[in-house]
């Protein structure tokens, strides 16, 4: 998917909207709303699926699917579907949002576009709701940023309804446990920095994030088999991105040095009790946390330490074109 094609899909979506809905969806690229990331069920700006007719909804989903890799779109759809599961599990018809709609609502996901996709200037867009925050930036004829990228699941493993034992973030969990449980005593002392996992990812919804400490075990201190598992785990996260951006992000990580990657763990070494891990490098922070609801409620986030929201790319663009 080229940025031009993505621009065309965004423009097609916008052209289908009424003036009233278009007013809700459009923001200036520099608007502070672009950095208002969140992943809990709160009131948000931007229209939702409730506001769209079938053609508008199809165009919105086409834009979303074109902005993600196959795995990213799968996870997005399955996390949205978990809202129906939560409504059954919680069985609370009185749990409403301020606008009167159910708090658990698969239609309550918001679209915001920042800037003008039809122009040659940089622009961005966001898809966000409960347990999803996806932020995209396009500049200089390419998708220049797809972070922050957040996926969460509640329940982590569906243990009720007819979808029993379904787990949206299964590979993220399994490979993490495989890696930590392959470590010898010396490696474990370096990697596991506390026996109690944090209550959430440390980066939360902060606009800017930095490397976290302690960093954990270095890639160079892993065995060859362990290195392979770590790279498989890293690939699970990067494969959610649109293929061209995934490739450029991989190159960025390699250019900064695979040997500079680290892996850190907190909490239980077995599923069912709170656990957390992070992968870090000079340009990368990935966090996975599963502590809530008896460790059956997972949060996973990818941050680019140098280019979240495309800020690094945009600085270069403005330097060249608006000196």
TrEMBL record:
Matching Pfam families: DUF3500 (PF12006)
Top-level taxonomic group: Bacteria
Identification of the protein by name: DUF3500 domain-containing protein
Listed InterPro entries: DUF3500 (IPR021889)
